[in-house]
Design goal:
Two copies of one chain form a homodimer. By secondary structure, chain A is α/β, with parallel strands linked by helices. The first copy, chain A, has two domains: about 140 residues, Enolase-like, domain 1 (2-Layer Sandwich), CATH 3.30.390.10; about 240 residues, TIM Barrel. In chain A, the strands form two sheets. In chain A, strands 4, 5, 6, 7, 8, 9, 10, 11 and 12 form a nine-stranded mixed β-sheet that branches. A three-stranded antiparallel β-sheet of chain A has the order 1-2-3. In chain A, α11 links the parallel β4 and β5. In chain A, α7 runs parallel beside α17. The radius of gyration of chain A is 21 Å and the shape is globular. At the A-B interface, α1, α5, α6, α14 and α15 of A face α1, α5, α13 and α14 of B.
Chain lengths: ~450, ~450
């Protein structure tokens, strides 16, 4: 008689917040004072190897939604609303077919009303699925990128929800893309393990930094091997020009300079403001307007060429991405690991990008986004698009010390993770210390605030 | 010395759920078992006339988000996350300029990440603003539609957030539309008070009803004076044909028959399934595919004409509506009172519809949606579009008994509300009895479930 499968026995959520607003790290035109946060989920199982005090064991799956502070409690509540769909599931079946749970969660007819497939409720679905993928990769003893790259095209297609996609991508077309993508994958896997995946860095370019700090960090980035940096723009026009000039002078002509407006502009303003910056040869203009405005992005792209248009980190689901691609609205697609419905929906999005031949340059930074999204880009390189040309993963040097398997950057490249899992596990002591509002850090800060003179 | 303004002194939320799933009322192809619910907010003030036991006094503002059951607690948590923006505000200033609070809520840089402007967090903003508008109308001693219709075009324009709209609608264009809309408004106001606003009914057409019940209710609707009914479709194709035939036979050729697929189809399937139903002369096909798929709706519309395409109840903000209109994707726009950012964003949406000359037929039903949305349609008639031609507000005969100022239907028309406010106030005893999970109804049901044999 075969042993019964272990089951999901615990569904544990945490409201974790880091006080980044104090340093103006992460400041941009739309988000002046973020406190990088995670609505964090741990799935526990009764499999051998479960160690309640450990965070990386094969018997746990970790996932989260990245937020920027207030409302992280709402995001935790949304994850909690999915508890009943997950507790008690047999782990073997769950890890063999995360897509089945993805459909169950998408089809909860009552919860669906709160989206559908967008916002807080949809990101909660993503956190649960990402935790399942972390568990599946750990049990397979592979980093997630390798689990995906080794999987059969047929199985990968079974993990995708093609609803609302078939006018742009059918299951058969996806299968053909994946079959083509597998050819010579051993060679690319070896290259990935040797060189890593290209990165670009946003660390020099936060809006709250002085010109001196910007120039110094930009020079350091080039010295460290980065071939692209990114600058936040979109507040004062004169500042944009001065900062772009400062950055371009610091990095020289051979390094790409991307600029990011974080949704600050209407369409006409986006066109005018981007044209003013054209003298500094920006590689792309990112989020020039509302992330919902597919037609607006298409109009901007037509007007600002040859400057590329990049967006996608706030594209709330595969239907928006489908339209961005169909409308010819973007040159660069920026996927995000925790905005959509987990690995399953990001597979759909990577397939759409491959179908339309648009390069994917993932959004990262925040807390834990680099750790997660590198796996998706590396899978794409090894077994789908087959190239890193004009592709790079965003890198920000924030908060990695809180993760058990933090990203490693070498000469401007992400080193391929080799530890099993999705690199999602945050250190237990970091979770405890930064739990809001009662963790040690926040309790001490509140006490200090109360003692301070008014 | 002038008396100080009263202030917002209370921010009280309730998780209210009605057990509608037991009757298959409200069942459709995507939502088979809804429990109509409200994430409910009461703003209290210290103005004279505040009566904690009453629900309709001039000193309280009521608002809510309609949901269909599970997750109503998440929606309540999202409303609670806005508490700190509202408590303590001076009521006079707040009611003189709800748009100022609208901008404060939209600009909360940390909460914004959870949308932006979509899903649970955005609907929470809508509930807060709608409660403020209820309070403002009560203090003005006018029903909301009349408050809006009497307001100056300049003030109405000041209530709209034009961000992301100016490529389709500028403040000056909005002002011109409102000035044109005011001409002869006394005549239309008199007509509205005499005849009411046209309604159509969805009560006969729920997917879970038998053919006999469908035919009987359809005949009754025509006898009651409705000139349009709506049928849910989108599950089994043969059922759709049979039900359309049944309905058409029951109502005859002179009554409009709309069909509603509730997002069930991909683009090609929507075209094929709608064409099959064309023999029954459907007036519109509603929500044929994903509410996010602007380009998909445009493709469907081009393929199924002369059948009209209607959508909008799940359009999550003004940017989506702008695109639906710009892309020529719809013939009929279906606004919803609690999906977007309150009256302020619905003003933007009504202005967009007027700009593009597309008729607005509001979505209603659920719990309280009829009560709210009638005010928006009536304002549009009296002081913006100036017509009810090809326009009707959805009507469903559910749960009105729980409201202090329920809608009144006469000869297929909504009678214009005359009581001050937004008709949002639910009876205190209804809230208490249906509070989930500890109100009297749910406690009794749980006790009964526990006693029932397994």
């Amino acid at each position: 008689m075969p042993a019964a499968s272990p089951r999901i026995t615990g569904f544990e959520t945490h409201d974790v917040r880091f006080p980044t607003s104090g340093q103006l790290d992460g400041s941009d035109a739309m988000n002046p004072d973020p406190d990088y946060s995670a609505a964090y989920l741990i799935l526990r199982t009764d499999a051998d190897g479960d160690a309640p005090e450990g965070a990386g064991g094969a018997a746990e799956g970790h996932g989260f939604v990245f937020t920027i502070g207030r409302g992280n409690d709402v995001q935790v509540a949304a994850i909690e609303a999915l508890r009943h769909h997950v507790l008690g599931l047999p782990v073997d079946d769950l890890c063999a077919d995360p897509g089945k749970l993805a459909r169950t969660l998408a089809d909860d007819s009552q919860l669906r009303w709160l989206g559908p497939e967008k916002g807080v409720m949809h990101m909660a679905v993503g956190a649960v699925l990402n935790a399942v993928w972390d568990l599946a990769a750990k049990r397979a003893r592979k980093p997630l990128w390798k689990l995906l790259a080794d999987a059969s095209p047929e199985w990968l297609v079974s993990q995708v929800d093609f609803r609302y996609l078939t006018d742009a991508l059918t299951p058969d077309e996806a299968l053909a893309l994946l079959r083509r993508g597998r050819r010579d994958r051993e060679r690319r896997e070896a290259a990935l393990l040797e060189r890593g995946y290209p990165a670009y860095t946003t660390s020099p370019g936060w809006l709250g930094y002085s010109d001196e700090k910007l120039a110094r960090l930009a020079r350091e980035a080039v010295a460290e091997g980065f071939t692209q940096i990114k600058l936040k723009v979109g507040a004062d026009p004169a500042d944009d020009v001065r900062r772009c000039r400062t950055a371009r002078a610091a990095i020289g002509d051979g390094v790409r300079l991307a600029v990011d407006a974080n949704q600050r502009w209407d369409v006409a303003e986006a066109v005018a403001r981007t044209r003013v910056l054209a003298e500094f040869d920006p590689y792309w203009i990112e989020e020039p307007t509302s992330p919902d405005d597919v037609l607006g992005h298409a109009a901007i792209r037509a007007a600002v060429a040859p400057v590329r248009v990049a967006t996608g980190e706030h594209a709330h689901n595969r239907v928006v991405v489908k339209q961005l691609l169909r409308a010819g609205a973007i040159d660069v697609l920026q996927i995000d690991a925790t905005r959509v419905g987990g690995v399953n929906e990001n597979l759909a999005i990577l397939l759409l990008a491959a179908r339309f031949g648009v390069p994917v340059c993932p959004h990262a930074g925040g807390v834990g986004l680099c750790e997660l999204v590198q796996h998706l880009a590396m899978f794409d390189y090894v077994a789908l698009s087959g190239t890193t040309e004009d592709r790079a993963i965003e890198y920000v040097d924030h908060l990695h010390e809180h993760f058990l398997d933090p990203v490693v950057i070498r000469r401007g490249h992400y080193a391929a993770p080799t530890a099993p899992g999705f690199s999602a596990a945050m250190r237990r002591e970091s979770i405890a210390r930064h739990t809001f509002p009662h963790g040690e850090y926040w309790a001490a800060r509140r006490a200090a605030d109360e003692e301070a003179p008014a």
